[in-house]
Target: DUF2974 domain-containing protein
Amino acid sequence: MNNQYLTDEQRVLVAKMEYQLLTPGQKLQLGNRTLGIVLQHIYTADGFQAFVIGNRWANPRQVTILFKGSSGLIRGNKETITNEWLNTNFPILWSLLFQNHQVPAQLTTAARMLNRLLKQYPQAKFYLYGHSLGAINLQYALAHCRYLGRIKQVNLYEGPNLYILMNHREQQRVRKFKHKTDNYVDVNDPVTLGYYDGRHLVGKLHYVNCEPLPPVTAHMWGGYRFWPSGRLMTKRVDEDFRLVADRQQQLMAIGASMNASWRQWRMAAQEQRAEFQSRLQKLSPSAVVADGLFNRDQLRKWWDDVVE
Model:
């Protein structure tokens, strides 16, 4: 089955396979047709997971990579909660809210693995899927992909907007993939943080036309509706989208201001500490009592002078 001719509905079904425990050698069916055979299940020490599917076992000409999303806080175990949430999801949320840019290990692993797979299957065209955490990893991997011409199509579902955390070089790189990348966003899903227009994002924005739903349901494609042809129901950016975007921008602006204030306070505290240590080094012998401790009154006076 050629990925290029799948409908939107079929692509969502393919993306949902990332939450199954796929094993190498397993044949995957999409309806009554064969999607392909699982070539690899990549699972690294930092928790990054991806499934590699080929149209055939040897020398595939078409490769599909499913970047796996989070296992969930309830269904996950200690390892997945640590790797997926504490070490990746929460740091990305923190970065978005407080504009404190950091790159968790899974993201760099995703970039390295994508380039490795592109090199491993030199004859293949690649189709990439990522939902939630998978969409986070995939966005970063695209920003560091060295084989632009080998990527045929990218599908991103319900992930935060990593574009606003990227540096100039990374943004330039992902802009080269814009015509190949579809980015699907349901504004009822709180995970889709950071989208405020149709330009500053990885790929082309597809604003899902759906009714308000509980957050978890919305996050797991619950609001996606399709025409009989299999095409996803979408709509243009409207007032609801702008209201959500405005609230998110206000929240991130507050966070950025708090982070800037914290950085200034920390820098001032470090300068004061350095000054205090410098004064201690110049402390005269008369300030030392018989048991070797500093005279508290003199230290207190010097510290008050530093703070002032």
In short: DSSP finds eight helices and nine strands in the chain. Residues 259-307 form one domain. The longest strand covers residues 33-43. Confidence is low (pLDDT under 50) at residues 288-292.
